[in-house]
Amino acid sequence: MNVALGVGGGIAAYKAAELARDLMARGFTVNVIMTRAAEEFVRPLTFAALTGRKVITNLFSAASAEDTLSSAIEHIRVAQENDILVVAPATADLLAKFAHGLADDFLSTTYLAFTGRVVLAPAMNTNMWNHPATQANLRILRERGHLIVDPDDGALACGMVGPGRLAEPSSIADAVANLATPAKRDLEGEVVLITAGPTQEPLDAVRYLSNRSSGKMGYATAEEAVARGARVILVSGPVSLAEPANMEVIHVQTAAQMFDAVMQHLDESTIIIKTAAVADYHRADAPQHKVKKTAARMSIELDPTVDILAELGRKKGDRLLIGFAAETENLIAEARRKLESKNCDMVVANLVSQSGIGFDSDENEVVLVTRTSDPIAVRRAPKKEIAARILDQTMSLRLALR
Ligand code: PMT
Fold first, then answer.
1. What's the whole-model pTM score?
2. In terms of C-beta density within 10 A (0-12 exposed, 13-18 middle, 19 or more buried), how is residue 110 classed?
3. Which of 77, 133, 230, 312 could form a disulfide with 192 if both were Cys (CB 3.0 to 4.6 A apart)?
4. Cα of 207 to ligand 1 centre, how many Å?
């Protein structure tokens, strides 16, 4: 398998040589592309000697007009001939270029022409890493499906201590090797019904009761299940995420509508994953008009919404039922209580009082609570990875219950 290794201009560029060697030891053919800034730190000859292949350093490097033409389209050839593009160190400048589609050198033009999997290993000064611009660019790149190998914490060349040091070359090589392994298809034959996002319960014609769920956890789970071969039915509350591909998506607003959609598809499903943050209360007598503001205090009577999970627990038969528990305290005890009272096979316990995880964030950290094993803590990671761990555990339960 061919890997294009993009080397950015930073102190850590020398570590890319170690990465090239590690990738070759794992059987990859490595084609190195260096930015002009990278050449200030390491000589192209180092990579040429290590890989035994030509190192690309410039978009227009040829002497003759014909050579110039062939070198001008070489990035397309490189993009087509490599299966994975890994960039290490990925500088703040490269992340910004990739995020916004700027293409003014060989590496950035190759990136735009490349359709395979991308691994980015950033390295930079701590303040540059923490800067909102860099973090916003990383969000864009993560959402595009690229794998970011986060930098390590530690002493940096600039004298600061903090995040920004290039991850160990072996960790970056692990990430590339994982991508190169053929995707698992362990959910083939399963029909996975997933609920995602919040519900909105009208209070009058223009106001509603809801919560901060973005739908990211549920959508990530749905996409992971599709990638692993499942047929997926996604029942989604109102979210602002892009419509996911290769699955049936049913949009609902209220808990009652979510209940109807779920029950309509219960028969055909084999696994149900209840990621949605369903409102627990609604206003049964919500007026059809906009309620006028007055100076007086107002109180509104709310009734409980239908408990979809509890109803599923009663009707599940031999389907696997995975509930969630969003808690701010007594995480495991509450998850165990829901496991029993809602007749779930697993409850994904989600501590939602910690910033950066849970509601409306790109990452999560959960504990998987089942009847058959001790609680399994899943460390903080992008929601896609958390989704993969939830599905891994679901499939272990499937095997155990067969
Ligand atoms: O959407 P994100 O921004 O990515 O955030 C993800 C998340 C924090 C919403 C998700 O990880 C999560 O924890 N989802 C469950 C949220 C929740 O409402 O938890 P709960 O403890 O209130 O409910 C327990 C379970 O009962 C959940 O599976 C819920 O879907 C279900 N439920 C709740 C009420 C109700 N009327 N019907 C239900 O089916």
1. 0.69
2. buried
3. 230
4. 22
Report which ligand 1 atom has the smallest distance to the Cα of 306.
36
Q: Which of 173, 169, 166, 182 has its CA nearest to residue 27?
A: 173
| Pocket probe mutation, ligand 1, options 275, 312, 362, max atoms within 8 Å of Cβ | 275
Atom of ligand 1 nearest to the CA of 214: 3
pLDDT tens for the 402 residues of the chain, in order:
999 999 999 999 999 999 999 999 999 999 999 999 999 999 999 999 999 999 999 766 555 555 555 565 777 888 888 999 999 999 999 999 999 999 999 999 999 999 999 999 999 999 999 999 999 999 899 878 888 999 998 887 778 788 899 999 999 999 999 888 877 899 999 999 999 999 999 999 999 999 999 999 999 999 999 999 999 999 999 999 999 889 999 999 999 999 999 999 999 999 999 999 999 999 999 999 999 999 999 999 999 999 999 999 999 999 999 999 999 999 999 999 999 999 999 999 999 999 999 999 999 999 999 998 899 999 899 999 999 999 999 999 998 877
Name residues whose C-beta falls within 8 Å of residue 47's C-beta, 6 or more positions apart in sequence: 5, 7, 16, 17, 20, 32, 34, 55
User: What three-state secondary structure class fits 268?
Assistant: coil
Ligand 1 contact via 211 beta carbon (within 6 Å): no
Q: Tell me, in angstroms, the distance from the centre of ligand 1 to residue 283's CA.
A: 19
Closest residue to atom 26 of ligand 1, CA basis: 309
Any catalytic annotation for residue 344? no
- Which amino acid is it at 298? M
Q: Are 325 and 348 in contact (CB under 8 A)?
A: yes
Ligand 1 atom, smallest distance to 361 CA: 3
CB 227 within 8 A of CB 263: no
Domains, the chain, in order of start with CATH, read: 2-180 (3.40.50.1950), 191-282+301-401 (3.40.50.10300)
Tell whether ligand 1 has an atom less than 6 A from the beta carbon of residue 213: yes
| Residue identifier of the C-alpha nearest atom 18 of ligand 1 | 277
**325 CB less than 6 Å from ligand 1?**
yes
